[in-house]
Design goal:
With 192 residues, the chain is an alpha+beta fold. The protein contains five helices and five strands; from the N terminus they run αβαβααβββα.
Length: 192
């Protein structure tokens, strides 16, 4: 086969164009995968840490009587609510109390028995000390909350959750220690 110099240049240019196209597509695919895996669009605050991460639905204060919006987790880990302080632990919390506590930076651990196990109480107290309403308002409490019917322990923090079988599971302690004091990024204006 005898090619003249014009045909050779055309083939060379086509080969360069094809190689450039392949390299461009590969670069786009690699960078898209990297940024998609590292993009926290729509999420504010700290997202990397122990437990399952949920979208930050905000910390808007609802007026009393206003219906709560749907949350993306059960129990909720963020979202608009009527601010309601937690005044003691070892009882059932409503969603308003739970979200108020999480927004302030408290960690809530739910249990399904009538009273928390001695191991769970010892864990909570070893991390934050005895529960007091002032400690909860300051975002430094590990609050134990009864959740009737639950067969596991659930650790809750702002936009995060972990479920374990027993208080001595090291993941629960790591979760509570990591997220304690890390509440909602900034209080939103009330929803009218």
């Amino acid at each position: 086969m005898n090619w003249d110099s014009g045909t050779g240049r055309l083939v060379e240019r086509l080969a360069i164009a094809a190689a450039s196209l392949v390299i461009s597509i590969a670069a786009i695919a690699l960078l898209s995968g990297y940024f998609a895996g590292n993009d926290a669009a729509g999420i504010t605050g700290t997202t990397a840490g122990p437990g399952i991460s949920f979208r930050d639905l905000g910390d808007a204060a609802l007026p009393p009587g206003r219906l709560q919006p749907p949350y993306d987790s059960t129990p909720p880990t963020s979202g608009p609510h009527v601010p309601e302080a937690v005044t003691d632990d070892e009882r059932v919390l409503n969603d308003n109390q739970l979200l108020t506590a999480l927004a302030q930076g408290d960690v809530v651990i739910t249990y399904g028995t009538k009273t928390p196990s001695a191991g769970l109480t010892a864990l909570a107290r070893s991390i934050a000390g005895p529960f007091t309403p002032a400690l909860a308002v300051a975002g430094g409490a590990v609050i134990l909350a009864r959740e009737p019917g639950s067969s596991s322990l659930t650790g809750l923090a702002w936009t995060h959750m972990i479920t374990v079988r027993a208080a001595d599971d090291p993941r629960l302690s790591a979760f509570a220690r990591f997220w304690l004091g890390k509440g909602a990024p900034a209080r939103s204006l009330p929803v009218s």
